[in-house]
Design goal:
single chain, 660 residues, alpha+beta, 17-stranded mixed sheet, eight-stranded antiparallel sheet
């Protein structure tokens, strides 16, 4: 990445600008703007997050926000209430309070003498979600949005449920947020006599969100609120949607490009859950330059040509050897002037000959090669060689390809299926099989068969009765080369991606059809992007390097198979204000191949903060298991000043299983 140190306008920074909400709550904002903005007002750009501007997102903030400020914007990074250096309490993700706070910050910014009255909102993940939801509320000053790695559907395409199946990430993310939000404000900003009171109040009221999310197992009003797919027409701001093929949120770009009535463009690269100017796998792109084109057009009314950009730009990945990490992916950029594209045709492939059938009865540990739901670290989180999972699935191998094919879109598999249980899950993977048998995951989809007709009104299966179902796989852009073959692998378990059915299941497939979206083969890059740029990187001293480890073990006595994950995010000291912070996450996921009720998940997070003689630490622990009737979840927070335990709180709840 090219570091830019000189900008068209000189930049000034305000590390703790207080923004007072109508109820008196003070939100802490870090603001960069041109030094002469009071004399020459500029548009404002808001990023509104719970992830701590002082020590959480600071790496990417340093690259991004000063860059925007240097090009004539007031760039505002706000800690949401109840997090970081802000006052107040948080009770859930994307709450009405959170969204109203963002609307109030937008109104506040538009009213400042240094602002020209136009505001944009941007963000990745949580920030990508809430900027779309805020846009749907139509605050008058909000003219444009850049949303990365986000969703339009909080139920069907987030970390909670997928295809009506309970994602393990539902519990994992609740555990993560319990840890993230347990940290105090910085005493240098909150005050030596005040930070502790804010911290202890925060801990006393900190929610553990897993029980709340488990109480909404259908697509009810709880999930509809904030799901902009309920009314795409509510979005009036211009939307640039960006995502990555190695992220969990691959589908949003297509949904927005196809449905938003306001100006909208989509870009999908080969990346994990990161901003694309520093993401991997490479190639990276000049995201900040692309963002400026968007902001300049919609916030400054400068003709930058963005309206003539293709509706959908995607990186078509070449086949590679399966690996848990790829620093780069070969391929090419393709572009469609409209989306959905008339250039893409659907090829139907019958997987089961008429009169035949296939029995699917997978062991519970099928899925261990699937990788993380949304890879986040630059490490071994991607899907590995699929052969171990293929061996536990029913596989339908296609003839060897005589020429390369470009798969662009969302593959689907239509099935006729019967079950011996009232509830059953089905997982479908599309794989690229190399000549030597190595199997690379292209895309996958899962479906709780009780949700085959509706996520809002599920219907129990009648054992032995055949039903029709459609399994939609995630969007992809992938070239399968000549000499390889496609494989469709079907299982009824996918651990630890989804929580298992309460009983072992036997499915009988009497028909299965692959619907394959094919695009004429691209001959080279159809669009190009500038090389990435960024402002001066964050200045730190590394005290403990980051490290990630993953192990799968089988207990010979109990038969339990356990996936153990340790992500040590390291410890660093800020060279400007001296705050040192560190973080370690530990997860274990265990299951017996023959017993779905043996499934369990445990997490343990450690967060540390220190400066000179001051230090604090939080430890959070969480556990989830189930029986045939209920989910059982528990958690604990411990807060330490130095080595002294000053706070402890326990959570424990049992939630009825419905049709899961």
């Amino acid at each position: 990445m090219k570091t830019v140190t000189e900008f068209p306008r000189k930049v000034v920074e305000f590390p703790d600008m207080g923004i007072i909400m109508p109820d008196g709550c003070r939100l802490s904002a870090r603001v960069w703007m041109p030094a002469d903005a009071a004399d020459d007002p500029v548009p404002a750009i808001l990023e509104h997050l719970p992830y701590r501007k002082r020590d959480g997102t600071i790496y990417r903030d340093q690259l991004t926000h000063p860059y925007f400020a240097g090009h004539g914007y007031a760039s505002i990074r706000v800690d949401m209430r109840g997090n970081g250096d802000s006052e107040g309490l948080m009770d859930d993700e994307y709450s009405e309070q959170e969204l109203q706070d963002a609307c109030d910050v937008i109104a506040w910014a538009a009213d400042q003498p240094w602002c020209n009255g136009n505001v944009g909102m941007m963000g990745i993940s949580w920030g990508g979600f809430n900027c779309l939801q805020v846009a749907s509320k139509q605050p008058p000053a909000l003219k444009a949005v850049i949303s990365l790695c986000s969703t339009v559907d909080r139920y069907a395409d987030d970390i909670h449920y997928k295809g009506g199946c309970l994602l393990i990430e539902n519990f994992g993310w609740a555990s993560t947020m319990l840890s993230y939000s347990s940290r105090p404000p910085d005493p240098l900003l909150a005050g030596d006599n005040r930070w502790r009171d804010l911290w202890l109040t925060r801990l006393e009221n900190q929610p553990f969100l897993a029980p709340l999310w488990l109480k909404h197992q259908y697509r009810d009003a709880y999930w509809k609120r904030g799901s902009i797919c309920e009314d795409y027409s509510a979005i009036h701001a211009a939307v640039l949607s960006i995502g990555g093929w190695h992220d969990g949120y691959r589908n949003t770009i297509s949904h927005l490009a196809a449905n938003i009535e306001a100006p909208v463009k989509g870009i999908v690269g080969p990346w994990i859950h990161k901003y694309p100017h520093y993401a991997a796998p490479e190639p990276r792109i000049g995201f900040l330059q692309e963002a400026l084109r968007w902001w300049d057009r919609w916030l400054k009314d400068i003709d930058t040509g963005v309206e003539a950009d293709p509706a959908y730009r995607a990186y078509l990945m070449d086949s590679v050897r399966p690996a848990r990490w790829h620093p780069a992916r070969p391929g090419r950029w393709v572009a469609e002037s409209e989306w959905p594209s008339p250039n893409i045709r659907t090829q139907e492939v019958e997987l089961i000959a008429e009169g035949n059938h296939a029995i699917v009865a997978s062991p519970q540990n099928c899925g261990l090669a699937g990788g993380e739901y949304f890879p986040f670290t630059f490490g071994p989180e991607l899907p590995g060689d699929q052969r171990p999972d293929d061996a536990l699935s029913v596989c339908f191998d296609q003839p060897v390809l005589t020429e390369a094919i470009d798969i662009v879109g969302a593959p689907e598999v239509l099935v006729r299926v019967s079950s011996d249980r009232r509830q059953a899950n089905i997982a479908v993977r599309l794989c690229d099989v190399h000549p030597d048998g190595a199997s690379e995951l292209i895309s996958y989809g899962v479906l709780n068969l009780t949700h085959r007709n509706s996520h809002e009104f599920p219907e129990a299966l009648v054992p032995g009765e055949t039903v029709s179902a459609r399994v939609v796989l995630d969007q992809c852009a992938y070239r399968a080369p000549a000499g390889h073959r496609l494989r469709v692998a079907i299982s009824n378990s996918y651990w630890p991606m989804i929580w298992p059915s309460p009983e072992p299941v036997r499915l009988e497939l009497s028909a299965a059809t692959l619907m394959l979206p094919l695009r004429p083969p691209a001959t080279g890059d159809e669009v190009t992007f500038p090389a990435p740029e960024g402002a001066t990187p964050w200045a730190t001293e590394t005290l403990r390097p980051a490290n990630s480890e993953r192990h799968v073990d089988r207990d010979e006595k109990t038969g339990l198979i356990t996936l153990s994950i340790v992500d040590d995010f390291g410890e660093v000291r800020d060279l400007e204000h001296g705050l040192t912070h560190g973080s370690i996450a530990r997860e274990t996921w265990a299951i017996h191949p023959d017993n779905p009720l043996s499934a369990s998940g445990k997490t343990h997070w450690t967060q540390t903060l220190s400066r000179n003689e001051w230090s604090m630490r939080t430890e959070t622990f969480a556990e989830m298991r189930s029986d045939a009737q209920s989910f059982m979840v528990s958690a604990r927070i411990e807060g330490y000043e130095g080595e002294k335990l000053v706070f402890e709180r326990n959570f424990k709840e049992k939630i009825p299983r419905v049709l899961l």
